[in-house]
Amino acid sequence: MNTPMKPSAGAGRGNLTPVQGAGSASRIGSISRAQRAAVVIAMLGKSAAKPIVDKLDDRALEQVSQEIQNIRYLGREELVEIVVDFLQHLHGQNGAFRGGPERAREIVEGAIGEARFENIFGEPFQELDFSPGFDDTWIRLEQEDPGRIAEYLNGLTPNLVAIILRKLDVAVASEIVTYLEDDKLDPTIGSMVETDHVDEDIDAVVAKMVKMEFLDNFGDGGFGGDFGGDESHLAAIGEMLSLVPSDKRDRMLAFLKSQYEGKFSSIERQMFTIESLPDILPRNAVPVVFRELDEMTIVRLLATLTGDSAPVQEYLLGNISSRLADQYRDQLGDVFIGSPEQAEAIQREFFTALMAMKRQGTISM
């Protein structure tokens, strides 16, 4: 049972109520009540924090603002004890909370009105946009190195990893999956299959967590389907698995088939292979793809289309001009594909580019 933390010396101004810790008193005993209140306000966000802020008088709120500016670093252990129970799942991670003057203004400005902001900071109030979609967390995360992202995700619980992967573009998610530890893959994919919807409030908390623990600490450095209703989330899983190297994909498919047999066929239907390209890429889109991709990318792809994949090569070359097709055929003899793994990597690169063109509206699928 938690007990109220003793206020630190000199923290008795205003009408702040002590924040109860979630663990050892010694760990956060040196953190003032105002600092703890500041962290809670920061983590709750504008809407949830407003009722708390409204109960603080101006002197107390000024103290909260000042304390945020004084915060240099709060480690994961302190943060877990101060903030919501949700973050206790991440106990032991290397996340952190950084403060400073800019962070103080951002937090307080989002939770109070214009008059109180000017009274506390002595500068004009600027309304912040907290509308859905304003948060750029997922855009920033997609720009990070997939290996570094996976290193961070390997320390989280599978259900959180699943939430994060589902917020990312499937091409980016598939790259990250290749770096995840094997014992993380199965439960993560399982969680993605089981959960077809995540509450917006949970999404918001996870976004704040990722921004705080990963992006702000370490810097910024799909195809259509017939899915609907409760199975719409399975489409992204199938697309993501299509871009994962075959060794990992086969193992994950075996897991899904054994644990989620009822949903496996839906996932499998949405997966695509190089042999299925004629079925998913319209004829009138082929010239556009050839125009958008550089010549060597096309030549290397065509060089991988041998054996069972030879009809795909003919499909592509048969939907561009005869003169251009002959030019590509002449270049095929100069390209050497050393191994099936190299061929697979070239094809994944092509599919990733294809998906990017679809998202940008360059082609229709």
From TrEMBL:
Span of domain Flagellar motor switch protein FliG N-terminal: 31-122
Domain Flagellar motor switch protein FliG middle: 147-214
GO CC, one annotated term: bacterial-type flagellum basal body
Official protein name in the record: Flagellar motor switch protein FliG
Region described as Disordered: 1-22
Compartments, record wording: Bacterial flagellum basal body; Cell membrane
Organism encoding this protein: Henriciella mobilis
Pfam family, one: FliG_N
Membrane-related topology note: Peripheral membrane protein
Role summary: FliG is one of three proteins (FliG, FliN, FliM) that forms the rotor-mounted switch complex (C ring), located at the base of the basal body. This complex interacts with the CheY and CheZ chemotaxis proteins, in addition to contacting components of the motor that determine the direction of flagellar rotation.
Family of this protein: Belongs to the FliG family.
One GO process term, biological-process aspect: chemotaxis
Flagellar motor switch protein FliG C-terminal domain boundaries: 261-364
